[in-house]
């Protein structure tokens, strides 16, 4: 565990979270973990482990089970919903779902504008967010004229514009070609926000996240430095996590940096 | 009638017409068409003047005549109707080239053709000089109910995405050797349509989730607004005003 | 069938514009009830779907093909109010972006293609679903009949608008015969496609078919080895909507029956129905003489009907009559079978 004692209030604290869908399918069976400010953490797990369910709890879209989620000291619940949604920025898997406005600029502006920001301040937010993902030249384009990788970057910008406490990415590397994948990694590394990255892409997790959580069957099955977890063949097999052919986590050293 | 829905009419440009605020153009096009429709059909010269006015606007907007004329093809089903009208309409009849034609039918055909053509021409000019996004802003500015503008905006945003999904489904069908040839293949096509609906609806739900995640609580923030100066309004309204003068003359003469 | 400018005179266009605006206002409020705050994205996506599906070509024979109009489909899948909104937005965008349908004719186009089709088809659909045994096949049958009636209903609406404000003096009898005769044919295609599409959706996601939400069975949960009723998952708008739409579907059903009656009246008034349809469609271009000629602009229609009724029409009667007979036949048969079927209905209702 890489607990940094410097941060008094963790960015995200989940404790005892259990949840069943209305159809009776129980997805979470008591999830506990804490993410401190500035950390980059990967949430790994096989299909059907409850990853998406967990993500939708982080900003209160799902709720009604037991346990608590606290974002920067604020409990997720009805009374602080607007604030919570501003603090937890979720980047969904399909950028076409995320980019619903007619132009990139309006899409990036949507979050802050809903929070009541207007005029030059709004413009400033939009410009900064787009610059952080290197998309400032595409502000007036309609999203469907962009490449998939560009759309994914704009999707990140839409969330950054809200200046969130924690950035949650759902499968950020899916459907990206190697170049876009690397560009996105560079962008994510350059951001100074807390990141929780939900992924199947183990090399990507190793590259970007010093720490990983394994969610399996609705509980956190392991929590530790990414390199160590990925090298533990027993653990990996037990949770249906497989490294790509020929990939040896012990030979990679990037994750220790930054 | 199914043809031609898909391709966009907008033509990039920076003419004075392109530069006008969208709501002034919408209002002008609408007013122009209203005036045209209200003109008595006997005033044939008036329609000639309207055509000249439209041509003048097209010239200012630098929309080529060929483009405008090609788009008029959308009218074809009604042209067919208009052609038939002199044959089926009642009233006095005259002999033209050995055919017995109804005088009223001829007037009717002329009326529909002239007004319909001018209407399409005005719409084409509007669509070819105004971007989609701008049109939505214009509609918003003209006080169309916000929910309606939002629906239209989502429809435009996702129209291509859904059409693309439909195209991919067709390719998938054809790759497996299926080709719809007649009525007995409707079942397969309808299954695709059903699947497309489910995908569209589920995407709608996901879009809603993404909106809620960014603070949406039932009303869209107004991010952009368009405004027009008096000069811009008067430039845009020059067309319908000129047309109105012609129309009034048409009634008096 | 997008009406261009100049086909309907200015006052009538304005009046239909007012009707369309009023109906849209009602639908906007109704859609919020059907979909709450999800209205904008969901209705937008459904509108995009309708827009796309209108481009899906259904081959008929020998190179010809048809496409869905979508009013009935939208009404059944997402409810009448959302359906009206979706189709109206599609029409609005087609008018503004593609010059398809005149700007001044928007009111006419929205009234007959968005409002009449959705309301009639939804009313017929709900009516049939109530009467038919509670199973999936009934939904398909109801969709078929609903779509079948919705298209000629739009043609009737158009004919009425034409009767009030048509700019040409083709007699109403002829317009009615041609419009309705052709649209009965189109309606058959629409009905088959709509029924198949609704059937495809209901096989996979029955919960998404707005008009059939009442047919779903209660959710069962396995708790400690025992099956119990699930608590109401979400305050689903469907049951409430179904209740509040009861008056709507009754009026709708009555309206469509009245309309059908009106149709057959006019249709039978035409002296040579089949020939006329053929002629108006350009199949028989050489014919010149017409029995019903001679009604001037001032009193078109009236004179025409009185003498034409003697001759009796064919196409209109066959088309509309068939529609009405099929519709009422289904009603009648089903009502008789209903009591017998009721016992088995609950067991075969929903299997998903």
Tell me what the structure shows.
- The complex is a heterotrimer of chains A (258), B (253) and C (352).
- By secondary structure, chain A is of the alpha/beta class.
- Chain A contains ten helices and ten strands.
- In chain A, a hairpin with a 2-residue loop joins strand 9 and strand 10.
- The two termini of chain A are 16 Å apart.
- Chain B has a domain at 16-138 and 228-252.
- Chain B contains ten helices and two strands; from the N terminus they run H-H-H-H-H-E-E-H-H-H-H-H.
- Helices cover 70% and strands 3% of the residues of chain B.
- The two termini of chain B are 39 Å apart.
- Chain C has one domain (10-211, 253-284, 295-348): Arp2/3 complex 21 kDa subunit ARPC3.
- Chain C has helices at 10-35, 39-53, 71-78, 80-98, 106-131, 136-165, 172-204, 237-244, 246-269, 273-280, 302-311, 315-348, and strands spanning 58-61, 64-66, 220-223, 226-229.
- Chain C has a two-stranded antiparallel ribbon with strand order 1-2.
- Classes of the chains: A alpha/beta (258), B mainly alpha (253), C mainly alpha (352).
- The interface between B and C is large, with 99 and 93 residues.
Descriptive keywords:
heterotrimer; A: 258 residues; Rossmann fold; 6-stranded mixed sheet; C: 352 residues; mainly alpha; Arp2/3 complex 21 kDa subunit ARPC3; two-stranded antiparallel ribbon; globular; disordered C terminus
């Amino acid at each position: 565990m890489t607990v940094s004692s410097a941060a008094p209030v963790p960015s995200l604290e989940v404790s005892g979270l259990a949840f069943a869908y209305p159809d009776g399918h129980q997805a979470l069976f008591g999830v506990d973990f804490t993410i401190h400010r500035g950390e980059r953490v990967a949430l790994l797990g096989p299909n059907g482990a409850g990853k998406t369910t967990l993500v939708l709890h982080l900003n209160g879209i799902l709720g009604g089970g037991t346990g608590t989620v606290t974002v920067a000291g604020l409990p997720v619940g009805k009374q602080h919903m607007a604030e919570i949604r501003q603090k937890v920025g979720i980047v969904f898997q399909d950028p076409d779902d995320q980019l619903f406005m007619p132009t990139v600029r309006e899409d990036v502006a949507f979050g802050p504008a809903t929070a009541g920001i207007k005029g030059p301040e709004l413009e400033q937010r939009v410009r900064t967010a787009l610059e952080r993902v290197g998309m400032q030249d595409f502000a007036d384009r309609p999203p469907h004229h962009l490449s998939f990788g560009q759309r994914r970057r704009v999707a990140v910008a839409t969330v950054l514009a809200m200046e969130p406490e924690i950035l949650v990415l759902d499968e950020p590397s899916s459907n990206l070609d190697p170049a876009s994948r690397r560009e996105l990694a560079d962008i994510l590394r350059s951001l100074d926000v807390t990141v929780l990255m939900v992924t199947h892409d183990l090399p990507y997790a190793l590259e970007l996240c010093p720490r990983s959580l394994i969610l399996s069957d609705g509980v956190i099955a392991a929590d530790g430095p990414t390199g160590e977890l990925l090298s533990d063949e027993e653990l990996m097999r037990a949770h249906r996590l497989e490294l790509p052919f020929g990939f040896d986590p012990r030979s990679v050293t990037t994750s220790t940096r930054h | 009638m199914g043809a031609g829905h898909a391709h966009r009419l907008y033509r990039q440009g920076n003419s004075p017409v392109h530069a006008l605020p969208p709501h002034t153009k919408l209002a002008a096009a609408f007013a122009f068409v209203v005036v045209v429709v209200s003109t008595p059909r006997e005033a044939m010269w008036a329609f000639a003047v309207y055509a000249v006015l439209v041509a003048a606007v097209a010239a200012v907007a630098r929309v080529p005549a060929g483009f405008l004329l090609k788009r008029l093809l959308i009218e074809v089903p009604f042209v067919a109707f208009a052609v038939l009208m002199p044959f089926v309409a009642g009233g006095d009849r005259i002999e033209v080239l050995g055919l017995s034609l109804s005088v009223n039918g001829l007037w009717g055909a002329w009326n529909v053709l002239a007004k319909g053509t001018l209407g399409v021409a005005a719409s084409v000019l509007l669509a070819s000089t105004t971007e989609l996004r701008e049109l939505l802003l214009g509609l918003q500015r003209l006080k169309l109910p916000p929910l309606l503008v939002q629906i239209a905006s989502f429809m435009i945003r996702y129209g291509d995405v859904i059409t693309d999904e439909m195209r991919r489904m067709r390719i998938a069908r054809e790759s497996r050797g299926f080709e719809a040839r007649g009525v007995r293949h409707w079942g397969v096509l309808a299954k695709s349509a059903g699947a497309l609906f489910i995908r569209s609806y589920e995407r709608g739900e996901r879009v809603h989730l993404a909106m809620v995640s960014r603070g949406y609580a039932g009303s869209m923030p107004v991010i952009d607004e368009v405004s027009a100066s008096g000069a811009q309004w008067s430039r845009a309204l020059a067309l319908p005003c000129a047309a109105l003068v012609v129309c009034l003359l048409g009634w008096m003469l | 069938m997008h009406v261009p400018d100049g086909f309907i005179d200015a006052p009538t266009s304005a009046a239909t514009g007012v009707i369309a605006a009023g109906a849209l206002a009602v639908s906007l409020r109704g859609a919020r009830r059907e979909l709450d705050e999800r209205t904008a994205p969901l209705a937008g996506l459904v509108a995009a779907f309708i827009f796309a599906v209108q481009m899906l070509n259904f081959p008929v024979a020998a190179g010809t093909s048809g496409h869905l109009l979508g009013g009935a489909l939208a009404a059944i899948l997402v409810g009448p109010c959302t359906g009206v909104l979706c189709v109206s937005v599609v029409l609005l965008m087609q008018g503004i972006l593609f010059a398809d349908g005149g700007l001044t004719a928007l009111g006419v186009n929205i009234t007959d293609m968005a409002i009449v089709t959705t309301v009639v088809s939804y009313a017929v659909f709900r009516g049939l679903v109530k009467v038919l045994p509670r199973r999936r096949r009934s939904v398909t049958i109801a969709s078929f009949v609903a779509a079948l009636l919705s298209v000629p209903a739009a043609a009737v609406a158009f004919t009425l608008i034409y009767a009030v404000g048509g700019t040409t003096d083709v007699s109403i009898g002829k317009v009615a015969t041609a419009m309705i005769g052709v649209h009965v044919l189109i309606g058959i295609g629409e009905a088959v496609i709509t029924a198949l599409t609704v059937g495809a959706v209901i096989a996979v996601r029955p919960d998404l078919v707005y008009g059939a939400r009442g047919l779903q069975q209660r959710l069962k949960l396995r708790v400690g080895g025992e099956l119990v009723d699930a608590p109401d998952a979400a305050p689903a708008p469907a049951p409430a909507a179904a209740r509040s739409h009861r008056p709507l579907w009754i009026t709708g059903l009555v309206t469509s029956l009245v309309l059908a009656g009106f149709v057959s009246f006019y249709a039978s008034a035409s002296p040579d129905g089949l020939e006329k349809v053929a002629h108006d469609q350009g199949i028989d271009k050489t014919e010149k003489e017409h029995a019903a000629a001679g009604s001037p602009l001032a009193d078109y229609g009236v004179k025409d009907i009185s003498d034409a009724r003697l001759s009796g029409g064919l196409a209109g009667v066959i088309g509309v009559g068939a529609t009405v007979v099929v519709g009422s036949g289904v009603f009648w048969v089903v009502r008789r079978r209903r009591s017998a079927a009721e016992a088995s209905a609950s067991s075969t209702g929903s299997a998903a």
